[in-house]
Amino acid sequence: MKNFYKNGMTVIEILVVIAVLGIIFAVVIPQFSKSREMQVLKSGVADTLSSIDKARGNTLSSLNSSSYGVHFQSDKVIIFKGTDFSTRDTTKDETINIATPAVISSGTLALPVNIYFNRLSGLPSASGTIIISTDSYSKTITISTTGVASSN
């Protein structure tokens, strides 16, 4: 006579599957979090560099016969028209928000900082560094004396 076993899973098999899935999730989920954090940092750096380049390019092309500048705050970058952030026409501003958890902080330039570009030469009113960071990573953006911005 043949022994027929019931098809199904035992409690031990279910516990083993749950343990294996728990280990996989414990390893994979933190890596997704770190990947997202790094992507947010890269995006913040790219947005900031793009803003600096846009303000300088607008100035060199004499868009609307004006100079343009960049204002840095911890959570955003504002491209403004003119050479004085406090007296600018706010309707002409272009605001680029930096996604959390990334923040802009002081490097050699103390925040908040305003940099505008000379219409004829494209030279910045100030040069130095700012830092964009998350809890785990950071990148330094350098604005050179020629007005060209780069990151490490």
What characteristics describe this protein?
152 residues; single chain; minor pseudopilin epsh fold; 4-stranded antiparallel beta sheet; alpha+beta; elongated; 8 strands; 25% strand
Would you kindly provide a written description of the structure presented here, covering whatever features stand out?
This protein has one helix at about 10-60; strands at about 70, 75-80, 95, 105, 115, 130-135, 140-145, 150. The mean pLDDT is about 90. Strands 3-2-1-5 form a four-stranded antiparallel beta sheet, with helices on one face. A four-stranded antiparallel beta sheet has the order 4-6-7-8, with helices on one face. The protein has one domain: minor pseudopilin epsh domain (minor pseudopilin epsh fold). By secondary structure, the protein is α+β, with helices and mostly antiparallel strands. It starts with 10 loop residues before the first helix and ends with a strand. The chain is elongated.
How large a portion of the residues is in β-strands, by DSSP E? 25-35%
CATH architecture: 3-Layer(bab) Sandwich
Give the integer mean of the pLDDT values.
Answer: 91
Strand order of the largest sheet: 3-2-1-5
SSE class: alpha+beta
- Superfamily (CATH H level) name: minor pseudopilin epsh domain
Q: Largest sheet, if any? A: 4 strands, antiparallel
According to CATH, what is the topology?
Answer: minor pseudopilin epsh fold
The percentage helix is 25-40%
> How many distinct folded domains?
1
What is the alpha-carbon Rg in Å? Answer: 25 Å
Low-confidence stretches: none
Cα end-to-end separation: 76 Å
Using the coordinates above, name the CATH class.
Alpha Beta
Q: How do the helices and strands follow one another from N- to C-terminus?
A: HEEEEEEEE
Strand elements, count: 8
Q: List the total number of helices.
A: 1
